[in-house]
Design a protein that fits this description.
The complex is a heterodimer of chains A (108) and B (124). Chain A is 0% helix and 49% strand. Chain A has strands at 4-7, 10-13, 19-25, 33-38, 45-49, 53-54, 62-67, 70-75, 85-90, 98-99, 103-107. In chain A, strands 2, 4, 5, 6, 9, 10 and 11 form a seven-stranded mixed β-sheet that branches. Chain A starts with a strand and ends with a strand. Chain B has 124 residues and is an all-beta fold. In chain B, 0% of the residues lie in helices and 49% in strands. Chain B has no helices and eleven strands. In chain B, strands 2, 4, 5, 6, 9, 10 and 11 form a seven-stranded mixed β-sheet that branches. In chain B, strand 5 and strand 6 (59-61) form a beta hairpin. Classes of the chains: A mainly beta (108), B mainly beta (124). The interface between A and B is medium-sized, with 25 and 27 residues.
Chain lengths: 108, 124
């Protein structure tokens, strides 16, 4: 099973700042990585797939990068609606599909 | 527009069987392009993939749950289902159904549409 880790667990930033969230896989997943955004009381929403392709409905201030075992989600110029929990997920080697524990992006 | 909606009891007794159905509208599960999946989230915790099923009936499940899980598809009703046997309090969670891509879709095996989720509590 591929274990996904994310850092930091919590990131406190102010609107207008940039956020950098990290995701690491215990073994290479190539570019078979997705990111999800989850707001309180809502289902997760696909944000990034293929490590760097933005899903529909998300602005270009969201970007994903990386391959192999190290991945980054960058959010430029944070808006109030961006504060949420972000999860990464690998789908290179499944079953099982595995998710990271999440990074909570909170308003400072 | 694609919609997924989980349906089933919100309370299950320990040692009994949890059964949920996901009703799909706006797409056909027999289209053959997608898997249909179940994912759960324990209160205040992260996401755990439970299992996925293809319209043909072939399915995959999380090895950590495999002995208790069945994921099945009903193309005539355009819905798919989850059965989890011998539940304990550790199975208390919000259960989500989701559409999962495949090797034939641009989103690959990520989950591109989710239902709103259904809270299932295991308690006597």
């Amino acid at each position: 099973e591929i274990v996904m880790t994310q850092s930091p667990a919590t990131l406190s930033l102010s609107p207008g700042e940039s956020a950098t969230l990290s995701c690491r896989a215990s073994q290479s997943v190539g570019a078979n990585l997705a990111w999800y955004q989850q707001k309180p009381g809502q289902a997760p929403r696909l944000l990034i797939f293929g490590a760097s392709t933005r899903a529909s409905g998300f602005p270009d201030r969201f970007s994903g990068s990386g391959s192999g075992t190290e991945f980054t989600l960058t959010i430029r110029s944070l808006q109030s609606e961006d504060f949420a929990v972000y999860y990464c997920q690998q789908y290179n080697n499944w079953p099982p599909i595995t998710f990271g524990p999440g990074t909570r992006l909170e308003i400072k | 527009q694609l919609r997924l909606q989980e349906s089933g009891p919100g309370l299950v007794k320990p040692s009994e069987t949890l059964s949920l159905t996901c009703i799909v509208s706006g797409d056909f599960i027999y289209s053959g392009a997608y898997y249909w999946a179940w994912i759960r989230q324990s209160p205040g915790k992260g996401l755990e993939w439970i299992g996925s099923v293809f319209y043909s009936g072939s399915s995959f499940s999380n090895p950590s749950l495999a002995s208790r899980v069945t994921v099945s598809a009903d193309t005539s009703q355009n819905q798919f289902s989850l059965t989890l046997t011998s539940v304990t309090a550790a199975d208390t969670a919000v259960y989500y159904c989701a559409r999962q891509g495949s090797e034939h879709t641009t989103t690959s095996f990520s989950f591109d549409f989710w239902g709103p989720g259904a809270l299932v509590t295991v308690s006597s």
